[in-house]
Predict the 3D structure of the following.
Amino acid sequence: MATAERTLELLRGTLDLLVLKTLSWGPMHGLAVLQWIERTTRQQLQIEEGALYPALHRLEEKGLLDAEWGHTDEGRRAKYYRLTASGRRQLTAELSKWERYAEAVGLVITAKGART
């Protein structure tokens, strides 16, 4: 797999994980997902709508999310997404992988010199 493809896969996988985790708190429409991630990360992560909505549709096509139309507090029509049982299982698996990945990266970052 080419480096650019692996990078894109990592970014997609990270966004998918963020979306699944966000929706683990309950159903939300797309803009609410963006706002939750931004608030939770103290504006450190900014997700573009052009990346979020394809991710939501991709996760829905995989059966990890269900969606239904509803209305926002402002009365606007919006599609609300929620995790399916498969989505919850996927979230658990992805969180485990992410924790192992973060631990491995942390070991490299905090290393005190080269070991041979």
